[in-house]
Amino acid sequence: xxxxxxxxxxxxxxxxxxxxxxxxxxxxxxxxxxxxxxxxxxxxxxxxxxxxxxxxxxxxxxxxxxxxxxxxxxxxxxxxxxxxxxxxxxxxxxxxxxxxxxxxxxxxxxxxxxxxxxxxxxxxxxxxxxxxxxxxxxxxxxxxxxxxxxxxxxxxxxxxxxxxxxxxxxxxxxxxxxxxxxxxxxxxxxxxxxxxxxxxxxxxxxxxxxxxxxxxxxxxxxxxxxxxxxxxxxxxxxxxxxxxxxxxxxxxxxxxxxxxxxxxxxxxxxxxxxxxxxxxxxxxxxxxxxxxxxxxxxxxxxxxxxxxxxxxxxxxxxxxxxxxxxxxxxxxxxxxxxxxxxxxxxxxxxxxxxxxxxxxxxxxxxx
Length: 367
Ligand code: OSB
Ligand code: MG
Prior knowledge:
binds 2-succinylbenzoate; alpha/beta; binds magnesium ion; Enolase-like, domain 1; TIM Barrel; 7-stranded parallel beta sheet; 367 residues
């Protein structure tokens, strides 16, 4: 895989409806799309940082900076045998997992395409369809209940709602009253501290599948203390940025479930390592999402076809996020799954005209 050219784009697409979490309400998503050229093949990757340093410190602009100034100069005309070889270059670049993951993803896509096999196959996937859940943002109670009823009616296998202080116990109570015992979980995006033990203990009464990232984005210690007090499993998202974090979290008992986002942990090879550790330790994993466009969603689907992904994922159909996407759309099967593409690489086509329509910035690096 000789890297002959690289193209970077910032692509911006509005959401079908605003998405609100404990760190704010957003109307649109911006992603950096990486395109690699090698012989007759192309590889695509998507860098998943948001445009603000809210979920993590990375942003669309820091991703671009790391790619343009540190990753692309190192890969110029380099001939890769396998995508794992990029790790040699990454060792010299501290942090910035989402920039690294997006580029590595493009290498994986290229590699799989050159071999004529699917990304799922390259990663060791065993499933032909993955379980689909849906993440629903903060809204008025009426809109939230309407959204939940609609998504549950479409067949999603579990509902996740976003919570924040003041929008938690009463909301869950109301959902349980209106919707009964549907598979339900909450995601706090690090909005609480141990001072909120009362809220956590109240949430513990509602048979939630899990409470995702209740405490600090970089905390493992307090989560271990909280997990001891709760029956409901804690699932870590933000706090697990590497295999090392996962090892410590499991040793300390900071969680009983891990959400793997390949962007957050620096790529697919790191994701596989965390997956393997969790399988060995009997810790269920599922794939988180970052409201990706089609390239990133296809990658999430391939990753979640691995055997340890045994809970519904934050991977919904395209129409839950966007009216129009840069790739073929993903649809929800009647049984609440999404089919894993079996074509080469990510297995979906990227449409140049649509990509062009939503591109707000582009740069090509020819060597
Ligand atoms: O915490 O899981 C999260 C979206 C953006 C940033 C963080 C998160 C989310 C989601 C949406 O919950 C998941 C999806 O892509 O459907
Ligand atoms: Mg989360």
